[in-house]
Design goal:
Elements: H1 26-39, E1 46-48, E2 58-63, E3 66-89, E4 92-110, E5 116-122, H2 123-136, H3 147-159
Antiparallel strand pairs: 1-2, 2-3, 3-4, 4-5
Length: 163
Amino acid sequence: MTERPIRIFGDPVLTTPTEPIGAIDDGVRHLVQDLLDSVALPGRAGVAATQIGVGLRAFSYNVDGEIGYILNPQIVELGGEVELVDEGCLSVPGLWFKTPRHTYAKAVGIDLDGAEVTLEGTGLMAQALQHETDHLEGMLYLSRLEPASRREAMKQVRESDWF
């Protein structure tokens, strides 16, 4: 297994909703290991399967020193206030914008053994759960920006050296 290259804004896999994971086989186990290897690098809070070119419902996280993964996650609860938080994305390199996010989030999914997994938290964990789940729905954080910020973000994307 290995760290996989991150797909960048404009790649259709990033805007295509993912398929749920059915049978847990060697392919899914390899995907999880690649997600874990890819998120373990410094500065990464999460990596969705779409970001490494895989259209399956899975993501890894690296929050407060805890690295893990979840398969078939669904947000089951959002709470607290909606706040504008600084947010960036590996698939939109170098750009950070104030993004509306709930201060609490709870997701439920499964692990490689098929056992139920619950992830929940505030702060960066809440933000990561919302951000990575959005990826699995085919949505980048830029879609959540307020209109003026979104216009500025798209201008910066067009002017970036990676686009």
